[in-house]
Prior knowledge:
Layout: H1 3-14, H2 20-27, H3 31-43, E1 63-71, H4 79-88, E2 92-97, E3 104-110, H5 113-124, E4 130-137
Amino acid sequence: xxxxxxxxxxxxxxxxxxxxxxxxxxxxxxxxxxxxxxxxxxxxxxxxxxxxxxxxxxxxxxxxxxxxxxxxxxxxxxxxxxxxxxxxxxxxxxxxxxxxxxxxxxxxxxxxxxxxxxxxxxxxxxxxxxxxxxxxxxxxxxxxxxxx
Length: 148
């Protein structure tokens, strides 16, 4: 990847629906070059998909939190099943399997604090492999649209 590819990826992360002509203008290249570069980035797996960003509050999700989870010693064999359960839970926006004091960091998105309480106390704290949780409410977030 060269500097133009990196700039192109940045532009697409800001707005993937920009016309090729506008992208070409921003990058100071021909629209056909932009089209070819996008196709190459897709074929190489640099761009994995095009998606839409939705405002969670507009959908009724007014509470967001990061929930850190520590897994019980000896329960490592069940990590895949636990991760699949997280993936299937409707209030889990995303999760990360991490190194450090915690094993998972879960981005929770729900309607209100009752949803969060239910997720933590009924779903996580009662789970057989969960040793401990720590919840941090998200007051505000920004999307780091620069770089990778």
